[in-house]
Amino acid sequence: MRPTSLRALAAIANSAGMRMRRWDFVAPYLQGELEQNEVVYCHAPPGYATTGADGRPRICRIEKPIYGMAQAGRRWQRSLFPWLLHF
Predict the structure, then answer these.
(1) What is the DSSP string of 62-81?
(2) CA 45, CA 47: separation in Å to the nearest integer?
(3) 27 secondary structure, DSSP code
(4) Considering the entire predicted model, what is its pTM?
(5) Which of 6, 61, 62, 72 lies at a 20 to 30 A Cα distance from 50?
(6) What whole-number distance in Å separates Cα of residue 87 and Cα of residue 84?
(7) Rounded distance, CA 61 to CA 46, Å?
């Protein structure tokens, strides 16, 4: 998390009269959403069949951002900012 985002969250909590004891973002990169027209594919993960019955390589379509994707942090940020702007 960027320091400016941390300061913004602290300011929101302070203005609402809340006490902050700790920060706990459980897998924040998994909380974002891909854009409606965005399509992302990847190879099958280890442990899954890497080839189909026809012998062609198997690929997977990603429906939600996953850790390690270049877009994952940006997508979570786009989910968080509208909530922050609401205050």
Answers:
(1) ESS--TT-TTHHHHHHHHHH
(2) 6
(3) S
(4) 0.48
(5) 72
(6) 6
(7) 15
| Per-residue pLDDT, 61 | 87
Can you read off the two tokens belonging to residue 53?
Answer: 């019955």
Q: What token pair was written down for 16?
A: 């609402």
Please state the separation of Cα 86 from the chain's center in Å: 20
Do the beta carbons of residue 84 and residue 12 sit within 8 Å? yes
One pLDDT digit (tens) per residue for the chain, 87 residues: 666 777 888 888 889 998 877 766 656 666 667 778 888 888 888 888 888 888 888 888 888 777 667 677 777 777 777 877 776
Q: Classify residue 58 by its DSSP letter.
A: P
The reported pLDDT for the residue numbered 58 is 85
Instruction: DSSP letter for 54, please.
Output: T
